[in-house]
Design brief:
alpha/beta; 8-stranded parallel β-barrel; 13 helices; 10 strands; globular; binds 1,3-dihydroxyacetonephosphate
């Protein structure tokens, strides 16, 4: 393992208050989001959408790395530049999602296991040749009456650690994503309890597999009540529950925390990240950053609608969310900033 190379990459991913843009939705997930907006579910529509994102002027001022999926890393921008090169050319580090998605977990009704370890070393070598310098693997944990089970937590933690070790052996920074889902009626306290148990299991497995913590990023969920829980907390409550949970379960040696958004609104995700950085920015042992997909992309996708004429306006919306989240990393996000969104010169939507 070349620890110096890994640490160099990971430090660039968290430097200058920038964060990650997850644009690695699987084809079925991307198609589902397109279908809701009447966008054609085609290879070309997915390429055109990713083209819009990658060629957004100024994106690299707030985004340090972008996570691609297998289809996208093999595609090009409208002028024929491979997406990974187009990103690297503007100073955004290309990353790649390497898990093969989730399957029903055998003998564990209602739970999922993430697959993709077979052939991982060879796939990573190919992605590395294509320019990827970091990778992502997502495990999902469901909260329910008797869920999650210990078997599901341990199997997913083990797979995450095996993936992370293979990444580091290949010179690729692993982004370790154990996502406790927001679906359900559970309370904020229950999310905290489950997330702490999951993170402790993940770090035990990472330790067993000899993963260098200074050469990885953790991509956790924020501590939130279920989407159908009647009590919804303030940004400060989310901030305190989240950072306290991480302090109890994540070693200080980890290079950075890059939260997923998980279905929160774009504004709430920024406000909650902002609260964490105001209240804990100087005390937390790790940078508190972001690796959002929906909370950066959704407004832009809703403007684009598959129409070339809307590209510029969609890019402004994307850039705005990226900038808001960079501000949130510094505790500088505010409602005023939301209202200061730039618009294309002379063009209204
Ligand atoms: P969201 O921010 O939309 O949750 O996506 C993050 C991600 O990369 C999921 O794996």
């Amino acid at each position: 393992m070349n620890a110096k190379q890994l640490i160099g990459t990971v430090n660039s991913l968290v430097a200058n208050f920038k964060g990650l843009l997850a644009m690695d939705e699987s084809n079925p997930t991307c198609n589902k989001r397109f279908a809701k907006l009447g966008i054609p579910e085609t290879v070309e529509a997915r390429r055109a959408y990713r083209d819009l994102i990658v060629t957004t002027p100024g994106l690299s001022e707030s985004i340090s790395g972008a996570i691609l999926c297998d289809e996208t890393i093999r595609q090009q921008t409208h002028d024929g530049t491979p997406f990974a090169k187009a990103l690297a050319d503007v100073g955004i580090i290309p990353g790649i999602k390497v898990d093969a998605g989730t399957k029903e977990m055998a003998l564990h009704p209602g739970e999922k296991i993430t697959e993709g370890l077979d052939g991982l070393r060879e796939r990573l070598a190919e992605y590395s040749r294509m320019g990827a310098r970091f990778a992502k693997w997502r495990a999902v944990i469901t909260i329910g009456d008797d869920l999650p089970s210990r078997g599901c937590i341990e199997a997913n933690a083990h797979a995450l650690a095996r993936y992370a070790a293979v990444c580091q052996a290949t010179g690729i920074v692993p982004v370790v994503e154990p996502e406790v889902l927001m679906d359900g009626t559970h309370s904020l306290a229950r999310c905290a309890q489950v997330t702490e148990e999951v993170l402790r299991a993940v770090f035990q497995q990472l330790y067993n597999q000899r993963v260098e913590l200074a050469g990885m990023l953790l991509k956790p969920n924020m501590i939130l009540p279920g989407l159908d829980c009647p009590e919804q907390p303030s940004a400060d409550e989310v901030s305190d529950a989240t950072v306290n949970c991480l302090m109890r379960s994540v070693p200080a040696a980890v290079a950075g925390i890059a939260f997923l958004s998980g279905g929160q609104s774009a504004e709430l995700a920024s406000a909650r990240l902002n609260a964490m950085n105001i209240r804990f920015g100087s005390r937390a042992p790790w940078p508190l950053s972001f690796s959002f997909a929906r909370a950066i992309q959704q407004p832009a996708m809703e403007i684009w609608l598959g129409n070339q004429a809307n590209v510029e306006a969609a890019q402004f919306a994307l850039l705005h969310r990226a900038n808001c989240n960079r501000a949130a990393r510094q505790g500088d996000y505010s409602a005023l900033l939301e209202s200061k969104r730039l618009e294309p010169v002379g063009g209204q939507r």
